[in-house]
Design a protein that fits this description.
379 residues; mainly alpha; two-stranded antiparallel ribbon; 1% strand
Length: 379
């Protein structure tokens, strides 16, 4: 209930940002208010997806949640891509992966560890996620390696390679959904609430793609048409606010003294992922570390295996030079995030110190991106 009140309150930034744009209050005001407006809209998209998943059942509900899990980030990235801000889009992909693995997981482990001395989760799920993230790192490493080890290679060749890799990644993403929702769904059932707090059960069912609890409950029967309307309206407004945000991006970041690299890696992912960040931390505080890990790592996997490939294919369709040739420094950041996250989660247990280590890693990387000079036209 408190969450919905907060989401309703923050919606005031939607008309404020639109007014700021049309009355020409300045790019900085538009940038800040549009970013604040996206936060509650992303939350309403998540809430609507949850309610629709209740009606559709576990299979379709899980697929819907997987599709809309990072819809806000995808919309922002597509708008930026259409504006030709390819390097900012790549930076946001990097930032989303390291943000979920280090910031979100770190906060969850720290706050959960302060409340509970030690928390546990399925190590087999952590290992599967680790293997998938390793594939993602390899996928974005190889096009960059090909570019740096080949003299005079043409940009169209790199883009063709990226498109081929993107198709493979989307195929693997489909297999991960099949694995988690069908063939090995029992591995994901450990985070399900057994009675007790209904909100925990709701969050678990949403993230796991399993709405069976609701299917058998007469107390919770969402209005499907209402929530479909909320989802469509929130999506349209996210697209509108993304246009305002991206349109004011370059001037606003210059006025703030920030580079486009830092904005893409740190600021945009926080705006697009705020709702999921809150969910991961909330369930960790309820001693549901399995679910928290699923939210944080699952979101990173979705970015790497679905969102990034979709953006590559969209760039190819739009005639934009979007590929998987990342700057080496971005690759280093992703590799470091995956390495430490896999190392800490491999034993199936977590505590506040491990959360602190993840947050310290994120802080160090954030500082490095802040002080890193402008690269490849990201400014």
């Amino acid at each position: 209930m408190v969450k919905k009140i907060i989401l309703i309150g923050f919606l005031i930034f939607v008309p404020i940002s639109i007014t700021a744009h049309f009355l020409d209050w300045g790019d900085l005001v538009v940038f800040i208010t549009a970013g604040m407006a996206i936060l509650p809209l992303a939350g309403w998209m998540g809430t609507a997806t949850e309610e629709i998943a209740v009606v559709l059942g576990p299979s379709w509900g899980g697929l819907l949640n997987a599709t809309f899990g990072n819809a806000t980030e995808l919309i922002i990235a597509l708008v930026a891509l259409n504006e030709g801000l390819v390097n900012v889009v790549k930076a946001s992909i990097t930032g989303s992966i390291i943000g979920n693995l280090l910031l979100v997981l770190g906060l969850s482990m720290l706050l959960g560890g302060l409340k509970y001395k030690e928390q546990s989760f399925q190590p087999v799920v952590a290992r599967v996620n680790a293997s998938s993230m390793n594939l993602a790192v390899i996928a974005i490493l190889l096009p960059t390696a090909v570019n740096y080890t080949s003299q005079g290679i043409d940009q169209p060749i790199i883009q063709q390679l990226s498109v081929a890799v993107a198709i493979v990644l989307i195929f693997v993403y489909g297999l991960t959904l099949l694995f988690s929702m069908k063939t090995h769904a029992y591995l994901c059932d450990v985070g399900m609430a057994e009675g007790g707090d209904s909100s925990t059960a709701a969050e678990a069912n949403l993230e796991r793609g399993n709405a069976e609890t609701y299917g058998n409950s007469s107390e919770h029967s969402p209005n499907l048409m209402l929530w479909v309307g909320v989802l469509l309206a929130a999506t349209l407004f996210v697209a509108l606010e993304s246009e305002l945000l991206v349109g004011a991006l370059e001037v606003a970041t210059e006025q703030l003294g920030l580079t486009g690299l830092f904005t893409g890696v740190i600021l945009l992912p926080v705006v697009g992922n705020a709702a999921e960040h809150a969910t991961a931390v909330t369930v960790a505080l309820k001693n549901k570390m399995d679910l928290s890990l699923s939210v944080a790592v699952g979101s990173s996997l979705q970015i790497a295996l679905f969102v990034a490939p979709v953006l590559v294919l969209a760039g190819w369709a739009l005639g934009k030079p979007m590929d998987l040739d990342f700057h080496p420094f971005e690759l280093v950041a992703v590799a470091v995030a995956v390495l430490i996250a896999n190392s800490i989660s491999s034993d199936g247990r977590s505590n506040w110190l491990e959360g602190t280590l993840l947050l310290a890693s994120y802080t160090v990387l954030g500082l490095a991106f802040y002080f890193h000079p402008v690269i490849d036209g990201i400014g």
